[in-house]
Here is the input.
Amino acid sequence: MNESGILLKPLPNAYTSGRQANFESVRLNIVARMARKTAPRAIFWDLDGVLADSWSANAQTVREVLDGFGFGARREIEKTCMGSEPKAILRILVPELEDKPELLDRMAKRMNEICDKNTWMITPTPLVGLVSALSGSVKQALATNRNDTTHILLAKFEIRRFFNAVLTPKEAAPKPSPEMLNMALEVTGVGAREALFVGDGSGDRQASKDAGIPFIHVSWR
Here is the structure.
């Protein structure tokens, strides 16, 4: 890629959520790996917190659900509302739901409904440019715990065409299960050590470890 290419352009660290992420170090990590003789043949991406800045939208969704079911505010929302499926988030924020499976199901269903409504708040991160820049150089797949709104966001960001596979909990067990990543390996036809997975959560890291895929961490503060 020449000097005008996206891979060689520094990426901003600050983003619209008011939080900061290490986008530039992630870019440099990927560029360095692509320059090796043993460059990865496939890159798998998480969505929330990696390609999508959904901190504000997710936190708003969780607040609405907790308020609607009479549980009120939780100070841990900002640290909890990324990278997990609805029931996992609710179990952390409201531990007593472990003994109330029917209520947990209703709250998770409501969370998915509100999530659809709040999609307009979600914006692309600078890493979306890398997805475009890498097109044609490596195979790419998306592995996300987000459900029905995944394809809405991919259309909004105009990046669906760059992925060989888009995997959500409808296609495979959600992370931290490695099932999505194993399916991505199968679809792209590469070995685990020939791929990279870019994620931001502990579930992403665990799924990557269990699948045997090298992991690149997007860290937020």
